[in-house]
Amino acid sequence: MKNHNAKIYLMTAITAFFCSCSPNETNEVDSKAQSQQFEIINVTHHDGKPFSTGAKSSSTGKYVDNPGGGVMMQAFYWDVPAGGTWWNTVNGKVTAWSNAGIGSIWLPPASKAQNGPFSMGYDPTDYFDFGDYNQNGTTETRFGSKTELVSLITKAHTENMKVYADIVINHNSGGQSEANPFTGTNTWTNFNGVASGKFKRTYVNFYKNSYGNNDEGSFGGFPDLCHADPYVQDWLWKRADGVGKYYKNTMKFDGWRFDYVKGFAPWVVYDWNANVGGFSVGELWDSNVDILNNWANSANSSVFDFACYYKMNDAFDGNNLALLNDDMMWKRNPYKAVTFVSNHDTDEISNKLLAYSYILTHEGYPTIFYRDYEEWLDKNKLNNLIWIHNNKATGNTSILYSDNDEYVARRNGYNGNPGLVVYINNSTVWQERWIQTNWANTQIKDFTGNSTWYPTTQADKWVKIQCPPKGYSVWSINQ
Q1: Which of 132, 178, 216, 283 is catalytic?
Q2: Given 129, 259, 363, 374, which residue is catalytic?
Q3: Where does Ca(2+) 1 bind (predicted)?
Q4: What is the pLDDT of residue 55?
Q5: Mean pLDDT over the full length of the chain
Q6: Which CATH number characterizes residue 129's domain?
Q7: 412-443 core/surface letters (b: 16 or more CB in 10 A; e: else)
């Protein structure tokens, strides 16, 4: 009888408890319990310091990286207007970009190329002609004159921004035909007539030659520079008056975007960086994180995170945000990952604002594409995300929840900065979710303004947040 009475008492107590709870309170308990079932994924395990582009200042000594690191602007797109106006166009925008929190700009290949006034620069002829020699049918490049380029770089430095040069050293174009004993044919490899008179070259400096038949890759049938040749090494990165040091010390570029690095071994970029210095990032078009990471370590360089790019495309456009749990370069090696949503070569992601909300709240060095910023997306929303990145996106990363429609991640803060929680919602309705923060008994808010909630975290650091349909919210301490 004792046991029977105890059971009756217990059942009565349980019934009384649930009857005393309102339906909303019961749902809150269930909702929180459901969220607690998700095992938090601690993605990175470093001390939390932000991505660094190397030196803490530009050549003027003014630029200082933000708490969250820097943001890069790709300051061009494919087939920008011809006519020599582009350097001036960009010059007119750098003040607004700097005010928005953009810390660096990546310019297209600046030297004279085979297609003269119409070239985007990826078919280089004369590395020392920035629009001041009459060759290949023009004096100015497609983008403008050397004077205008120098003015742009100077203006960017005045606005505390770094300037990165796009460097194409895999191949050349625009040489004259010459008999080539290594091929038994005529090849377009005679560059002895370059107008600058610097870095003259012939068939002996291109594959195939006395150093071998080929290197790691060729591009488009263009003459393939032989980096094993000491003469090529001297002119590209060793000589004080060579390409790299001229760009850095005379033209005042702060870093490099290396084009088509699949075309040559990583030691080339390693040696360039060791001899010339400056920030560098390689265009290694591959979604395999092992390949990206191995190259970055071997080249001692950052690399564009194509793995992240393709995962975002699958996640946002394929309605499966759980794919954001997968491996990416920024997760493997956050201090060598440059993230992006689109560029001059590829533009596949349609839900771009969701993708920007991802890269501007996560680790790595995020890049903004010119047309996204200036033409296609809401600039105010991008400026808000840039501010959030610079001021709140600190510390290592933990994924708090993910499914087809929802993704929640936490930046864990660094050096007194509290970090943030980002909530991305790919569904067509508002979503709410309980998540665990790093803050106890603290009021938080959505720094995007998409939510008007000002919730206070519980003693156990849990709190309920919300996110708009096909949108995002970013939460941090209300201060």
Answers
A1: 283
A2: 259
A3: 170, 229
A4: 61
A5: 93
A6: 3.20.20.80
A7: bbbeebbbbbbbbbbbeeebebbbbbbbeebe
